[in-house]
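Box S1 | Example of a co-folding query
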Amino acid sequence: MTSLTIIGGGWAGLSAAAHAVQAGWRVRLLEAAPHTGGRARRVMHQGLALDNGQHILIGAYHDTLALMRRVGVNPDTCLLRLPLNLKTPDGSGVRLPDLPAPFNVIAGIAGASGWGWSDKWAFIRRAIRWQQQQFVCPPDLTVADLCAGLPPAVMALLIEPLCVSALNMTATQASGQVFLRVLQDALLDGDGSSDMLIPRVDQSSLLPDAAVQWLKQHGAEVVTGHRVENLLPHLTSPVLLACPSWEAARLTQSLYPAWSAKAAGLQHTSIATVYLHANADLRWPAPVMALHSNAQAPAQFAFDKGRLSQDPSLQGVLALVVSACEADRDSISTAVLQQAREQLALPQASLLFTVLEKRAAFACTPALVRPSMRIDSRLLACGDYVAGPYPSTLEGAVKSGIQAVTLLQAMP
Ligand SMILES: Cc1cc2nc3c(=O)[nH]c(=O)nc-3n(C[C@H](O)[C@H](O)[C@H](O)COP(=O)(O)OP(=O)(O)OC[C@H]3O[C@@H](n4cnc5c(N)ncnc54)[C@H](O)[C@@H]3O)c2cc1C
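Box S1 (continued) | Returned holo structure for flavin-adenine dinucleotide
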């Protein structure tokens, strides 16, 4: 049995560890923090089990769902499955009905409110063209370039919200090619691929806690609170770097300067999750709502945690998400509180807690060259930022963990 050291216990490291254990490796996973889960983990605040950031998964996250099942988490009970819903509280926007693909998309666009018939027809023609081009475009296009000529209503009520929630950047900044790949997977990867899967439990209960237990039961060693400072002593056997890009860059700086420079060169974008207390009965049509967002009202989505969770302490708790946010924590909290009071008609809402994750996602810009998975014959990297077709997502992280172990096995 060959030993494998995995540095980092986020979703990529846990995925790699589970895959490696099943492939017969003796796994040692080293995690710097006192807990696993990385950017997608539980955060306790005044006895409430909240998250480091409110997440949404989608039906196309096949590898993530399979990993959850493998470690004993039932996605059917831990996630609420809803058809894609980008409708705002005033009823404008797109909601896909519960129909097989692509009829759900056609019916959803036909029924979009706030769009005229010419808007709907313009989007359908463009979507057919993207499909004919097999969802591939020149790598240097932004999402705005790709969508040039689409009517403002389509941009405001569909493209912008999808782009900012999937790529954590605005359409003028984000990669058109990666956006097309996300659209392809979400819309055409089989029935249910576009469904939103909203966690009913905290992010650590969704995978990391069960994964650690499963790994230990299967003979792996999981060490938390162990920050790897120097790579060299670990290189006596194969090593998988599953830490974020900036840490991978630090660890490889002297040994592999070219790879390290590429990892260090990645830019990052922030996400804030503002937790509020509603101080009122919420009577929303669904436990998640899209919001009209702008600089003064920056949140794009609101989640009714009380309705999603079975935990009585979360009754009346809301999570409002500000993707691609640029302001500081206090300004975001104040603006989001005001937005909830006005847009969600919650004049009594009060602030609980704000988590601002400054390096939530790598900046998925056009023609970005991401660091390769292979660094050397005994050193690989996995994580959401490693070369691949996806933006920073749980599925990207989980997939890269699987691919890294597969690549390691194929090496002489
Ligand atoms: C607020 C927020 C909201 C998000 N929303 C969504 C969403 O809705 N849907 C979605 O799909 N994705 C979302 N994401 C992105 C998703 O969380 C990430 O893509 C994913 O968690 C990345 O996992 P990872 O394992 O690649 O990296 P990380 O989660 O960063 O894990 C790396 C791990 O390495 C550890 N580490 C670092 N240095 C060392 C060292 N020297 N030694 C040992 N260990 C080390 C860290 O402590 C960490 O646990 C969101 C992210 C954030 C922050």
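DSSP finds 15 helices and 16 strands in the chain. Residues 7-13, 30-33, 38-40, 53, 55-56, 227-228, 242-244, 247, 271, 273, 357, 360-361, 383-384, 392-395, 397 surround flavin-adenine dinucleotide (CB under 6 Å).
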